[in-house]
């Protein structure tokens, strides 16, 4: 047998890894020495200050000036803890764990059983070194990959190892990511144990069952919260602890973990995405849906909200609202309070409400309940009428703040109806047009538009019509889009026509100018924007080649502010075009007229330059036509560039959409593409068949258009392409084999039927002999 030879790609990959490993080994000792010197210098500098430090009083009241000896970042209540140092791994241990990390990253095991055995061996080697591993810069990624592949017993063992050290871990630069991953991956286990669907994994041989393994995941989460309880106020604004705190709040609330809004709330854009090949298939379905949580979790959220805000006054909350790290945590706390506790009280029968109101009135006489909403906007909604009150000052100060306005968006979206009416009547309603014009205040104002009634919305549209030219000049396309969409939801046809007239007047009173201006088709495309369209990224290496490139590009590309603004304008302008196209009547007719008037080069630019613009063409092909020739004109502009579309990442989606449309419309003005155009496209694709098969996108287009059927069974392809049924029915209507047709015809005939022209004398076989016997007997 010949020797197993590695491919060229594997050799290059191994060479890169060897160089990377050598560089890390060379610099590891230097980093350790520098780190040790830095820590010693820091201890020497903080030694006299720590000796003079006086702990804060137990009642939570404090004065920053009263403790001048407190270290920087440690002032205030419940932050007088010492961050632990867990030591460092030895050189042999680092080499072992680094090699294990590479194997887990590839996940190229022959079977899941062998991978489980490998994980057990890694856990045995890691026993007693979990804290060192989690806080290591080079090996903390291994801990995250282990958590992704671990079973419930192994996750509980990590809870046991981290127990008693969580406050130091969640505030550590590298260990905080491990804690966050452990929390998120363990959340579905709580729901499984609550519903009784959880099955205990068998204990491996030679391993003893600890108390943490016997405990439920609910108890382990509650023990973790007990450990962090004393430092909640500090964790809200800590650079690393805030993310772990938000993850715990999301888990306790039962929200979906895979939702886009949840992911943006938990992690920053710069966060490194640690994953394992094929681990996504093992992800629980409970992560993508709302989870059932025990009642103790709801009580824990209430206690966290109370404890976090117990030592804060109005000034501290206002500072936290404008803090870049504390603001997202405060958003989540406010949203959970409004959705779980405030709105829950509003639901119920009228009789029950009266009883609750009477009981609340009696309670208010003796004691008043302090809530986060009440601390942010006290005495609301009556306080909004006076601009000198604390509630009105808070809202006015947050409207134009780039960070604080996000908290105001959460308040507007989830606050009770009474408070929203007060906000609309006294603060947002009188100056809605000026707020929509501002680049920061427009976002809270858009949240207000989403909750307005039809009458208030009509009033807001009337005030905004004179400002339409200003909206267009400043690029407030998201404001215009929201106005159109909300008027469509509220059935405001007159308002929609008024908005369209004002928008058209801003672009020269001609519908043909809408799409070229909003999608920036008249401007030249830079080389950086055309790079993603190169066919190199879909070569034979496929996804593996992309991953090697991503590993090398650790730093994001530098982008000028002008390029960012252009991308921002293009994104919002394309969204406005798509929103107008989806509104039946005059808006859809205006966009279709503008698309039909485009030059072929402009249509090709829309199809290949940006995902936002190409999605407009896809939606236009799916939208019923206001004129009978709209789809025909749009497709004819793409015919000269079929090969470019097929090899383009964004243009291939437009090309694949064309074949899904019927050749003849089932109803008047229904989407349809004539058959001769489809035949023209497939004939051009057949000329570049060899080139198309060399790229993944080309193969996808060739398969979608059934190019093999065109090459070998053209008659069958013609029947398939002319079929007017949707794509799901085309498979059923495909040409059947001759034997299947004969079987179906035989099943339809009644039993004993021998045909109209049956002649017994000419017949052969059993039937002919039977008739001959009857004649002889006669």
UniProtKB/TrEMBL annotation:
InterPro entries: ARM-like, ARM-type_fold, NOP9, Pumilio_RNA-bd_rpt. GO terms for biological process: endonucleolytic cleavage in 5'-ETS of tricistronic rRNA transcript (SSU-rRNA, 5.8S rRNA, LSU-rRNA); endonucleolytic cleavage in ITS1 to separate SSU-rRNA from 5.8S rRNA and LSU-rRNA from tricistronic rRNA transcript (SSU-rRNA, 5.8S rRNA, LSU-rRNA); endonucleolytic cleavage to generate mature 5'-end of SSU-rRNA from (SSU-rRNA, 5.8S rRNA, LSU-rRNA); ribosomal small subunit export from nucleus. It holds the Pfam family PUF_NOP9. It comes from the Eukaryota. It is found in: Nucleus, Nucleolus. Gene3D superfamilies: Leucine-rich Repeat Variant. Residues 1-78, 347-367, 525-560, 724-778 are annotated as: Disordered. Its main location: nucleus. This is Nucleolar protein 9. It comes from Neurospora tetraspora.
């Amino acid at each position: 047998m010949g020797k197993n030879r590695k491919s060229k790609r594997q050799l290059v990959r191994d060479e890169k890894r060897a160089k990377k490993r050598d560089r890390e080994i060379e610099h590891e000792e230097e980093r350790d020495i520098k780190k040790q010197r830095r820590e010693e210098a820091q201890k020497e500098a903080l030694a006299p200050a720590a000796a003079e430090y006086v702990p804060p009083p137990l009642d939570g009241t404090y004065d920053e000036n009263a403790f001048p000896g407190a270290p920087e970042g440690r002032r205030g209540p419940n932050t007088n803890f010492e961050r632990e140092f867990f030591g460092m791994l030895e050189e042999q241990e680092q080499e072992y764990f680094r090699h294990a990390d590479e194997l887990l990253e590839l996940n190229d095991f022959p079977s899941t059983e062998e991978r489980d055995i490998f994980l057990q061996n890694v856990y045995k080697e890691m026993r007693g070194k979990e804290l060192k591993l989690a806080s290591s810069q080079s090996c903390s990624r291994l801990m995250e990959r282990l958590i992704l592949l671990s079973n419930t017993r192994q996750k509980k063992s990590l809870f046991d190892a981290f127990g008693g050290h969580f406050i130091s871990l969640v505030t550590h630069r590298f260990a905080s990511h491990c804690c966050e991953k452990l929390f998120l991956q363990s959340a579905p286990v709580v729901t499984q144990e609550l519903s009784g669907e959880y099955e205990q994994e068998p204990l491996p041989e030679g391993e003893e069952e600890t108390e943490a393994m016997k405990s439920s995941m609910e108890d382990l989460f509650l023990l973790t919260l007990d450990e962090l309880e004393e430092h909640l106020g500090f964790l809200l604004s800590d650079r690393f602890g805030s993310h772990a705190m938000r993850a715990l709040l999301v888990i306790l609330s039962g929200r979906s973990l895979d939702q886009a809004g949840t992911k943006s709330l938990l992690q920053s854009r710069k966060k490194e995405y640690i994953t394992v090949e094929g681990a996504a298939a093992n992800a629980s379905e409970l992560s993508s849906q709302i989870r059932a949580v025990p009642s103790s979790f709801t009580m824990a959220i209430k206690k966290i909200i109370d404890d976090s805000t117990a030592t804060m006054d109005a000034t501290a909350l206002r500072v936290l609202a404008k803090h870049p790290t504390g603001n997202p945590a405060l958003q989540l706390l406010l949203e959970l309070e409004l959705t779980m506790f405030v709105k829950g009280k509003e639901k119920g029968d009228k009789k029950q409400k009266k009883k609750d109101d009477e009981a609340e009135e009696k309670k208010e006489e003796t004691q008043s309940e302090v809530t986060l909403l009440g601390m942010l906007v006290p005495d609301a909604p009556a306080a909004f009428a006076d601009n000198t009150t604390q509630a009105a000052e808070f809202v006015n100060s947050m409207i134009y703040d780039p960070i604080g306005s996000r908290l105001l968006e959460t308040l507007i979206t989830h606050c009770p109806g009474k408070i929203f009416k007060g906000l609309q009547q006294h603060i947002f309603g009188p100056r809605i047009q000026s707020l929509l014009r501002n680049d920061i205040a427009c976002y809270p104002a858009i949240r207000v538009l989403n909750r307005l009634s039809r009458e208030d919305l009509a009033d807001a549209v009337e005030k905004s019509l004179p400002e339409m030219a200003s909206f267009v000049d400043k690029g407030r396309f998201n404001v215009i889009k929201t106005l159109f969409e909300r008027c469509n939801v509220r059935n405001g046809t007159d308002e929609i026509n008024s908005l369209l007239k004002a928008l058209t007047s801003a672009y020269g009173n001609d519908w043909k100018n809408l799409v070229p201006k909003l999608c920036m088709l008249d401007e030249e495309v830079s080389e950086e924007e055309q790079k993603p369209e190169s066919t190199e990224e879909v070569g034979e290496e496929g996804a593996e080649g992309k991953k090697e490139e991503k590993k090398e590009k650790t730093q994001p590309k530098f982008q000028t502010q002008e390029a960012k603004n252009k991308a921002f304008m293009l994104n919002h302008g394309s969204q406005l075009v798509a929103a107008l196209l989806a509104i039946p009547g005059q808006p859809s007719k205006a966009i279709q007229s503008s698309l039909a008037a485009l030059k072929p080069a402009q249509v090709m630019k829309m199809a290949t330059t940006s995902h936002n613009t190409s999605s407009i063409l896809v939606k236009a092909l799916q939208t019923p036509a206001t004129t009978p020739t709209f789809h025909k004109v749009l497709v004819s502009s793409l015919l000269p560039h079929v090969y470019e579309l097929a090899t383009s990442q964004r243009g291939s989606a437009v090309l694949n959409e064309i074949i899904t449309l019927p050749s003849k419309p089932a109803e008047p003005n229904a989407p349809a593409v004539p058959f001769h155009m489809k035949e023209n496209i497939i004939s051009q694709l057949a000329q570049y068949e060899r080139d198309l098969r060399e790229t993944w996108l080309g193969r996808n287009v060739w398969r979608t258009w059934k190019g093999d059927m065109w090459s070998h069974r053209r008659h069958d392809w013609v029947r398939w392409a002319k079929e007017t049924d949707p794509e799901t029915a085309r498979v059923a209507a495909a040409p059947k084999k001759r034997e299947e047709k004969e079987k179906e015809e035989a099943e339809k005939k009644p039993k004993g039927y021998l045909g109209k022209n049956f002649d017994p004398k000419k017949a052969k076989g059993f039937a002919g002999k039977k008739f001959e016997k009857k004649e002889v007997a006669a």
